[in-house]
Amino acid sequence: MIQITISHKIIPDVQKQISSCYNFVTVICGLAFGGLLFTTFRIWRYAMRKRHYLKAAFVGGQLITGRHKAAIQDSLVMIDHGGIIYAGERNYDMAPSLEGYEVIDVTGKTIMPGLIDSHLHFSGNLNDNDSDWVREPLLQKQVMAVQQAHECLENGLTTVGEISRFGIPIRDMTNTGQMQGPRVIATGRGFCATASHGDSHNCSIEEVNAGHPWAEAVDGPWELRKAVRRRLRECPDAIKIWATGGGIYRWDTSRDHHYTYEEIRAVVEESAMRGIPVWSHTYGATTPSVDAGADFIIHGFEINESDMEKMYKKGIYFCPTINFLPAWLSTYPPQYIPGVHDKYEGRTLIEKELARLYDNVNKAYKMGVIITVGSDSFNSDSTPYGVTAIGEIHRFVDSCGMSEMDAIIAGTANGARALGCYHITGSITRGKNADMLVINGDPLKSIYDINVDNMDMIIKDGEEVLRYKGK
Ligand SMILES: [Zn+2]
């Protein structure tokens, strides 16, 4: 039998060691905590140094909140520390005091939420050539992508839904105040099938993988699941797929299915497990994406009434992207569909195709599908950032039968809902971030009053992006 004895002499030594060890740990923890506080303070001070929040009260203007179907006349909007403090009637008893606020008289002008373009690409492209946009040097594209982000904000877009390899870092650098830009809801590169719309057929597969600005070719349900998992490591806000063709190449006609139902379903299931939404490009067949459970249909050029009904019931958002089409179709002409195009007026196939598309948007609008504004801007020349999105708002009114107020809501609140950021932006509401425009005019009387030259002020997160003085 082994007897274990502990010498009493040892105990004080152990206590001493424990005590010195405890002191050592306390000192280390104290230093670590102090270091953490110091670092937090430095980050906060650095971030604050870059912010120049307006403390301002906008008095007397017409207020379009983005939440209400009627505008508020003779309004008051107060902003401070990046947020909205008050938005409502000017002579409301409970309105806060204006003391300490810069008072800005906006009589005869309109205050509305900052515009939201729910579909564009910070591609960095210089033109619309499908080989050039792969082969242009990556560093050049990165520089131009930053410039494209600036162009958005300077033209009134305070939030954008973005698909490209450059959007995620632009989002992060904007959020931390390192650069000025719109709020970016980014997917990173989307997924397309081999020989699909995002795969530039005239470049080698190696070139496409190395340099395509917005797409990556991935085939098959399990490879797609793996690709979604890979993309999640980059911290995107949504997953983008090209479910159909796009009309650039011989075997890429707009109407073709490119991903099978099983492939779309795999992406949706994999994304749903992590709670990330799926955005689906459909030029042709929209039904497989709607049935598979995509959250957001982009383009939907051949959306039918059964798709619309399902989208209405399931709350699937619809971004028709009609305004970039005259430019796009003149480079990549539509496919003539006998018995369909003949029903529409127009001197050319492009005009008939446009009439057909406008009619489809009108049907979806009447059915109550939630419609958003999307420019599909992908370079500054053919689809200028901001300007193309504003043109989409105009087209909704002049070609698709939408009311002025509903077109504005499509370009603000609906966009925020589709992009999952309605809790912070998309309407002028107390407690939300101060993303807003002062428009010199009344867009409820003429929708064309929303244009870049009429923007007296552009404010994002309570910071002044632009102010035309003396108007
Ligand atoms: Zn696009």
Q: What layout of secondary structure does this protein have?
A:
Elements: H1 10-50, E1 56-59, E2 62-63, E3 75-80, E4 83-89, E5 102-105, E6 110-113, E7 115-120, H2 132-135, H3 138-154, E8 157-162, H4 167-175, E9 183-186, E10 190-192, H5 205-211, E11 215-217, H6 221-232, E12 239-242, H7 261-274, E13 278-282, H8 287-292, E14 296-299, H9 305-314, E15 317-319, H10 325-331, H11 349-367, H12 387-398, H13 404-410, H14 413-418, E16 436-439, E17 455-460, E18 463-467
Helix pairs in contact: 6-7, 12-13
Bound molecules: zinc ion.
Zinc ion (ZN) is lined by residues 119, 121, 376.
The CATH superfamily name of the largest domain is: Metal-dependent hydrolases
CATH topology (fold) name of the largest domain: TIM Barrel
CATH architecture of the largest domain: Alpha-Beta Barrel
* Count of all domains: 2
Number of helices: 14
Sequence stretches where pLDDT stays below 50 over 5 or more residues: 1-7
Strand order of the largest sheet: 2-6-16-17-18
Fraction of residues in H or I helices: 25-40%
What fraction of residues sit in β-strands? Answer: 15-25%
Quick one: overall form? globular
Q: Gyration radius, to the nearest Å?
A: 27 Å
Number of strands: 18
Oligomeric assembly: single chain
CATH class of the largest domain: Alpha Beta
Which features would summarize this protein structure in a list?
471 residues; alpha/beta; Urease, subunit C, domain 1; TIM Barrel; 2 domains; five-stranded mixed beta sheet; four-stranded mixed beta sheet; 18 strands; globular; disordered N terminus; binds zinc ion
